[in-house]
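Lecture 7, part 2: worked example. A protein chain together with zinc ion.
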Amino acid sequence: MPNEKVRKILSNSIGCLCIIIFFSLTTYIVYVFYSTIAITTLEEKRYGKFIFHFIFGNWLAINIYFHYIMACVTSPGLAKDYQHLARQYPICKKCSFNKPPRTHHCSWCNVCVLRFDHHCPWLNNCVGFYNYRYFFQFCCFMATGCLYAGFFGYREYQISRLGVQVFRHIDSFFKVPDILEDLGVDGFITYYIFILTVPVGFALTGFSCCHAHMISRDETSVERLLQIDYKKDSITYNNSCLDNWKRFLGVYTLGEFIGRILLPSMHKPRGNGITTSDYDINTDLLPHQQGHISYGSNIYHHISDNYLFRKYRSEMSSWRKPHTISREWQHVVKTC
Ligand SMILES: [Zn+2]
Ligand SMILES: [Zn+2]
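Predicted complex, written out as structure tokens:
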């Protein structure tokens, strides 16, 4: 029990630190844009460039902040809130609540999370059924924003300060004294913040691509690592890659894509995160907010003879580590 408290405090401390780092760095780059780059661009009457960077930069910044905040504050979907829909599922040994399929226990938060993907210290939150879209869109917008700042912002910053681009990215390794001399201490720090966004942007791009691949296959990080395929034996599951994306994003037309994906949107994912057979049920309200348990009961009756469900229950009752897991991931198994 003391270990759980220590872990909780450690998790919150690291999470708060990550949130402060995120807001500090992103806000500082926005500040540099308005205080240095935008003023110089306007003074030099480069209006076309100013308008482009103003619209594109603000669109990115709004989407980054929105999806980050929503991913942080949105509950990923806790199994304990859906117990009236989950009484016939196995009990979690750590928190003693029923675990619907695809639910995993987060050791950092000590809760069972629906369609658990991972615990993200940068969000100080789990990533699960209800906030996965926010998390994924944040990664995409942040990757774009980092590469935009790292390749265009850093060039415009030099032009604003020195009148012309003097240093290249490679110079950040070999011309440190020259950069310090030409830009001063504050310009030196700002320059390297812009440089830092380049590797972060590439790393986030790779990370986003990995998640895009998993979304295409409708699998979570945990399922991928543990090589659990919940749908191979499912009678009901036969969704294509495109269907998986439509369901994940909650869009079915081009208009919805523009309004819900390119612009901030708070629409909820389809389904309730408890069963795979309810994906076509549109639940704008959370199940426990809908006020009729019969809805959940119908789902149970529908899936009670489902082979996938029986298989999951038998697997959970005699949980064993898959033989194919490498040793380095075995500690992950213990925490899920
Ligand atoms: Zn649990
Ligand atoms: Zn967690």
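The beta strands are 104-106, 111-113, 118-120, 125-127. The chain is about 60% helix and 5% strand. Keep this in mind for problem set question 3.
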